[in-house]
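so my prof wants the structure for this chain in the tokens format not the other one, which i didnt know existed until like an hour ago. anyway here's the sequence
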Amino acid sequence: MEFSNLYYLFILLPVTMLFYFLMPDMKRKNIALLGISMLFYAMGQPLYLLMMIGVSYINYVLGLRIRPGKKWSIALPVIIDLAVLAVFKYLDFFLSMIGIVVEHGVLMSFYCWLIDGLNAIGFSLKYPTTVLPIGISFYIFSMISYLADVYTGKVKIEKNFHSVLLCWMMYPQLLMGPIVRYEQVQIELHQRKMYPRMIFEGFQRFTIGLAEKVLLADYCGLIITRLADLGSDTMLVGAWLSAIMFTFQLYFDFCGYSNMAIGLGMVFGFRYCENFDLPYTSKSITEFWRRWHMSLGTFFRDYVYIPLGGNRHGKIRQIVNMFAVWALTGLWHGASWNFVLWGVYNFVLLCIEKQIMPQLEELPGRLRNLLTMLAVLFGWVLFSHTDFAELGIVLKGMLGYNGFSAAGTGIVLMNALPLIVACVIGCTSLPRMVGQIFTGACGMYGKRRRSNAIDARKIVYIAVKVGFICLLLWLCVISMIGTTSTPSIYADF
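here's what i got, hopefully its the right format
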């Protein structure tokens, strides 16, 4: 179940809040939150819950035996984690590379066989739509980061299994991140305070993320579907419009989910790391990747790039290390060659940029941003098409070889203009600036922010904030009733 779901918003979330805050102490709150997280995961993939708990326990036990400086002590648990990820996410991809193709996939066939056996003895389970455990990449990477930090002495070994399991399985960040490291929440796992203001700001952050997903990303997806139905997504105008809408859809889908996860974490008393920092305002590819999916970027930097030597052994070694990072980054996103191509594409861009950066810095900032976004948009075209034949047709269409546009494309474009304007504004710092100006005008910075005294400006501030949240929530509910909400793109990663 995803957050952009009416059952979650009006049944599971209120029950979760009530159950959680009724717990009298932190230990019971943690147990409640762990139980809620398991239930949340089991509602989508019950059989995989047992597998996730089993892998977690193996990591916990082997983590207790890690000795700093002893490579053998960390090698085994990391190999097990990567093997689990490879089996579930890449087995069929690897088999196809050596010429073995299994209809519907090896694990899907096994999973269906297992369900048939369970149903035969009295269960009533449905066949899965996908064999991939939801959020397995985020889950495995969280465990690997814990093991690596224990090995380097960055964090102390956690001797309570429930604590590390809660860190890995906490449902706000379990499905689509951000990748939460144990060091970021180790103190809050055992002692945290939940202030009314923090809870309120958490709900506000959650609602903004929900609006980004439901009111922007999902409607961008509708435009893409409409263009495909018209057959215009392979022609000049339609192909560019579809690419632009996917650029917005991917950002608001993933950034929206990250905001929802961070907001829910605040409600429970946790401060998760930020995952996006206005990446579409970047003036270089390097800056873009510092702002996009930051938890993944820092993971590969700290646990792959730096251990491989980083830039400490000359330019050739640095280029090799960068190639390894970006090939793995592409493969992390999916078991398909287009993701590998996308990763290599970004590697090439970064290598070229490093050579011409002095010349690029002489250009006007807006021009640099435009060039960066054109490069990013082309990358998202590679990212969004797993079929190379289809990708070739789309790229030819963007160059005008397949015709100008299909009938009805102009109407779709005109109808999409307000959405495009809203998305462009949402990608900039303007909403943040407006919020800061309003907060400052209400005197909510400095001493007044920490004061418990109530005055007219504070009442106005609270009233406007509550009204804003209610308005966004109302618009989201209307849209979800209209069935525009679709599964998050990153749910498969």
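also thought this was worth mentioning. The mean pLDDT is 87.
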